[in-house]
Structures are given as structure tokens and as C-alpha cells.
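Handover notes (outgoing to incoming on-call)

Open items:
1. SDR family NAD(P)-dependent oxidoreductase: sequence verified, structure written out, both below. Nothing else pending on this one.
2. Nothing else urgent.
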Amino acid sequence: MSPSELGRVVVVTGANEGIGYHLLRSLVDDGYLVAGFDVDVSALQSLRERHPEQVRYYECDVTDTDAVESAVDAVVGEWGRIDVLVNNAAVFELGRFDEVSPDATEREFDVNVFGYLRTIRAVLPRMRAQGGGIVHNVSSGVGQVGHPSLSGYAATKGAIEAFTRSLRLELEPDGIACTLLYPPATNTRSAARLKYPSFAVKDPEYVGRRLADRIESTDAAVYADWQTRLGMALVRRVPSLVKRGTERYV
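SDR family NAD(P)-dependent oxidoreductase C-alpha cells:
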């Protein structure tokens, strides 16, 4: 089948597990052509076996400019376009600032900030040539209100917040929307290290489905659900909630 018969083309980074995988899988159910980028592609291989016409995957480290450009070229070579990019790949180091090595914090920035910049730089010429597109940059409330023992990660998300708002203004004349995509706290493998109680986190499958429902949104801020929108508004207004809500577990 052609892309026009199956749907638009979406690229998701950090797509082999967690939110990225379930987002990508939900998009397949909705008829999209999807390409997953990750350093591990084992789950994506299985997904392609079940949906060979809709799924492509590329072993891609977003800290490697050549790998990113090669993967983007491969998607365009396969399907001719990229309509939506979801920058989701991320890492974090859990620990007090003075206990986390500078190299670890540098890696957080290389993946969580410069990884986003690399994929956007590779995709932008294609989106401009085709007359438009959507860039979703996954963010987090910690980029606005902070989080104990996640200072490096919070700093990367704060940088993405400012970068995305600026890029949105730059790209608007090109018909390219740039958004901040906000999932709720999610029970992923990495987030399990925070040891939050089960009632405070959402299942990755639920989050992926909700984000897939918003994949065509061009709003400046895109929330997975109304609870996430309300929760972020609340902690911005009452920052002390962050301290009270995290000191028991972190």
C-alpha cells in the first residue's frame, strides 16, 4: 500500500520501549506509517513482523549525527516524506547534584537536548520541501518546577522548553508546528527507579494511546490528558507541592 492509503508518516525516537513504543504501536492501529529510532530495536522488530507494511525501525543513537541523518534519509527514501517527528528519547541520572559526575550530566544534555536538535536539523529540510509538518518535543513538568535528585534531567527539559518556544516562532512561516508534548508521570523502566507509588503514575500503554490521539495537534502545549494539564497548572501555581510530593519517595 502507498502512504496515502495507509496514512501519514511519523518518526518516533526512543521507540523501543515505554511511552515511545506504545505511542508508535497506537499510531500503527490508527493507520499511520511509523518509523522507530532507538539504540535497541528488539521490540520494534517484533512489531514490524506483525505490521510489515506500516512499520520501519532503525538502530540509531541520537548522540550520533551521522546515524540520525542516515536514519532520516532511509525513512524519506522508503516513504518519500516525514509528516510528524516525535522527539522522545531521553536519559536521566538519579542523585544529588554533587554526587552525579559531570560526564553523566553531559550525557543527559547530549541525549535530551542535542539529540532533539540533531533529529530536527535532519528532518527540517524535508518538512520545508513538502510544505509543512509537526515537531513534537516531549517535555516534563520538572523542566518548569524542578525535582530533587533530578537536577540534570530537569535542566535538560528546561532547555527544551525555551528552545521549543523559540523554534515555534521561527518555523511558523514555513507551515511547521513545533510543540511541547507533556505525558503524565509514567511507570516506565527508568522511572521505576524513583519508587513513586502506583497511584501516582500511569501505565505506558495508556499514555501512548493518549498521545497518539493528539499526534496531529499543533497547539503550543499538548497534554496527554486533562489530569496532566490540571496537575501541571497546579504545581506551577503552588510550587511547594513538588517538595511535599517528592520528599517522601526521592
